[in-house]
Design brief:
Oligomer: single chain
Radius of gyration: 25 Å
Largest sheet: 5 strands, antiparallel
Number of helices: 2
CATH architecture of the largest domain: Roll
Distance between the termini: 62 Å
Strand order of the largest sheet: 4-3-2-1-5
CATH class of the largest domain: Mainly Beta
Order of helices and strands: HEEEEEH
CATH topology of the largest domain: SH3 type barrels
Helix content: 40-55%
Length: 107
């Protein structure tokens, strides 16, 4: 009889013990990958919201330019005296000379 009770108690705790490593892996994954990525994404969205005329920016394609006009979803970049292009705001990697933007483009 005690053997049956011990076996029932072991079977009751077993699913929790089996699930614990999976939960631990998910927690590590969240704190090492997802949380920092979300923080960088929020900072990038804040940067895009604060763009103004005269800012010097770098695009994801590597173009360097000065903002000549800002619209809701589009930014007009002046690349040189006679060259202006329209770029979607989300294609802006960061401000020129900003170490965070340069670090984001490396990896």
């Amino acid at each position: 009889m005690p053997f049956i009770l011990a076996q029932a108690a072991a079977e009751g705790a077993s699913p929790l013990i089996q699930l614990l490593p999976v939960l631990l892996i998910f927690a590590i994954f969240y704190f090492l990958l997802l949380a920092p990525m979300r923080k960088r994404q929020k900072a990038h969205q804040a940067l895009l919201g604060q763009l103004k005329r005269g800012d010097r920016v770098v695009t994801n394609g590597g173009l360097l330019g000065e903002i000549s006009a800002v619209e809701e979803k589009v930014v007009h970049l002046k690349l040189s005296d006679n060259v202006k292009v329209r770029v979607v705001k989300t294609a802006i990697a960061g401000l020129e000379g900003d170490p965070a933007a340069e670090e984001g483009n490396k990896g």
